[in-house]
Amino acid sequence: MSATFSSQRFSIAPMLDWTDRHCRYFHRQLTGETLLYTEMVTTGAIIHGKGDYLAYSEAEQPLALQLGGSDPAALAQCAQLAEQRGYNEVNLNVGCPSDRVQNGRFGACLMAEATLVADCIKAMRDVVSIPVTVKTRIGIDDLDSYEFLTDFVGTVAERGNCDTFIIHARKAWLSGLSPKENREIPPLDYPRVYQLKRDFPHLTMAINGGVKTLEEAKVHLQHLDGVMMGREAYQNPGILADVDRELFGRETLKVDTVAVVRSMYPYIEAELAKGTWLGHITRHMLGLFQGIPGARQWRRHLSENAHKPGAGISVVEAALKLVADKIPQEA
Predict the structure, then answer these.
(1) How far apart are alpha carbons 203 and 206 in whole angstroms?
(2) Would you state the pLDDT for residue 290?
(3) Among 30, 136, 157, 267, which residue's beta carbon has the most beta carbons within 10 A?
């Protein structure tokens, strides 16, 4: 495990229905340094659910658990379980705007309850030694002044003893916009997040929202401690192949994306033996060859065949043959 596991320098955002354990295992084949996050898991699912909502492969490390909830005692219980299971960080979701989340009194609506958020963070920090962080927005509904944001951060930092914030640089509309629209319609305000770091220089701050290239990430890193990439990392995972070298200064060879696919085969075989459907794994790999001739055929072959009963490695290998010989080789 990396000694700098709590580094926020570059991470992949927690994304519901996307960043499951198969996705994270795949992303880890492309980058060793990036901090990975689970999908948001509610305290109720962990404490009362039938399945093991904390399951992951050791190969996914460094790994953070994102929790959804607003009961300090339940969050503390889940944070303890996360630490016992080897997670490197626990993150509280104060940014998700969906109706389902609001009805459970967690997510972005908690921005209006800074004292409660502080109590939640403190309850977790009191019982674990791993980092406890907050992912939030720059505002909600009409509570979107810079003063509101600084009051929120100040309260959570001081009362909750929270030292790390990941800021999605958009406000959230709690009614009138869908979660998807909330990721696209409210305008991005990067300067506001930069100002927040200047006003709270002692806090670790990472930015999230609309980051599409590693060059953009480098610009943000001139102002902030970290960058969290969301949809671009998922839809164009090949971008992750350059992260360790470009953002962490690691002397690594250029990642061979064909070799990355084949490195997944032992994992896929093990998962198939447990009854996992191939498509549940390969759906996260569809965007790997974006921009390369044959990428569409790769996606189509997997999309059409990976969900068929009995689909196995041969389906992936056949898809790979449609693109592998078209990848430009470095001299």
Answers:
(1) 10
(2) 93
(3) 136
* Position 70 pLDDT exceeds 70: yes
How far is residue 222's CA from residue 26's CA, in Å, rounded to a whole number? 29
> What per-residue confidence (pLDDT) applies to 331?
31
**pLDDT given at position 328:** 57
Q: pLDDT per residue over 265-321, tens digit each?
A: 999 999 999 999 999 999 999 999 999 999 999 999 999 999 999 999 999 999 999
pLDDT at 330: 42
The average confidence (pLDDT) of the chain is 93
A 10 A CB-CB count for 175 gives 8
Kindly provide the residue ranges of all beta strands, DSSP E only, lying in the chain, ordered along the sequence: 10-12, 35-42, 63-68, 89-94, 132-137, 164-168, 204-208, 226-229
Please report, to the nearest 10 degrees, the dihedral formed by the alpha carbons of residues 3, 8, 11, 14 taken in order: 110
User: Could you tell me the two tokens for 62?
Assistant: 């460094």
- Sign (positive or negative) of CA dihedral 173, 107, 149, 208: negative
Q: How does DSSP assign 226-277, residue by residue? A: EEEE-HHHHH-GGGGGGHHHHTT----PPP-HHHHHHHTHHHHHHHHHTT--
Residue 51 has a CB neighbour count (10 Å cut-off) of 8
Q: Are 122 and 76 in contact (CB under 8 A)?
A: no
Between 196 and 100, where is the model more confident? 196
By C-alpha distance, which of 67, 70, 63 is closest to 53?
67
DSSP 93: E
Name the amino acid, one letter, at 205.
M
- Three-class SS of residue 311? coil
Residues catalogued as catalytic: 96
Element (H, E) at 192: helix 190-199
CA distances from 311 to 68, 198, 258, 268, 298 (A): 35, 53, 20, 11, 15
